[in-house]
Amino acid sequence: MSIKIAIIGAGGKMGLRTAKNMRKLDEYEILHVQKSGPGLRRLKNQGLEVVSLESAMPKADVAILAIPDVAIGRVSEEIVPMLPSGAMVLCLDPAAAHAQRLAIREDLSYFITHPCHPPLFNDEVTEDARKDHFGGVHAKQHIVCALFRGPEGDYQKGEKIARAMFAPVMNAYRMTVEQMAILEPALVETIGVTMLIAVRQALEKSIQMGVPEDAAREFLFGHLRIAIAQVFGFVDYPMSDGAQLAAKQAFGKIFRPDWLENVMNMERIAESVAEITRRE
Q1: Residues 153 and 75 in one domain
Q2: CA-to-CA distance for 87 and 65, rounded, in angstroms?
Q3: Residue 61 and residue 27 share a domain
Q4: What is the mean pLDDT of each run of 10 residues along the chain (280 residues)?
Q5: Could you give the number of structural domains in the chain?
Q6: Residues 253 and 198 sit within 8 Å (Cβ to Cβ)
Q7: I need a labelling partner for 222 at 20 to 30 A (CA). Which of 32, 59, 251, 280 fits?
Q8: 96 shares its domain with 36
Q9: Which is nearest to 87 in space by CA: 50, 54, 58?
């Protein structure tokens, strides 16, 4: 007997990726839920049957919320009362759970998962896999998972579904929702993406100062690759003395002394998550 999985937002970017991978497996029956807009047209253009929330939720074993963070609170309030007892609500991001935006029923399970995306240093050999930067199509990736609420036995059920959604998957790292929120938004978005935007601005400034654009881009990306390998221990040889000195002298000019404590603390992370999930 197949497991009925309703994908809410099945016509969106993540919904389409998820549905495509899940449809490859006979053990899952996919219910494509999409109310309107471009997503509805995408599904119909692919010849896929679209069902309503009202018809899908009462028979769904798992409801996957493939929708923006800001919509999860409202949509979960709509779908949770319709789900059968013992069903699982699966979210693709920890924000709504961490911010307590999810509608909760004691007889349901809640599972959170998110892709790590393909490793920066990997062993992919095909062109399709090398160009699969997001993952979940050709390139292998790791994922993180959390059982937010529900019986312990439901963790394995959720991880199995997560592996199918984001296949091909290498490792699935189990953690708490709070730990996932430390990773995203704090580590990856608040810090990592912000620093990358600053690097992009510096690249554009170098081009404005007269460096040929192609040369600037290749020089930067090549040096970033080896610098990441050195800083994070992928290689056993250090940066040059000049590079280490330049970084040491610049650090205090670019960053406030308390920058890390101001960002990587649970109070600020909670504020950031609340902002991400604030109602539409």
Answers
A1: yes
A2: 13
A3: yes
A4: 93 90 91 90 89 96 96 95 98 95 97 97 96 95 98 97 96 98 96 97 98 98 97 95 96 94 94 83
A5: 2
A6: no
A7: 251
A8: yes
A9: 58
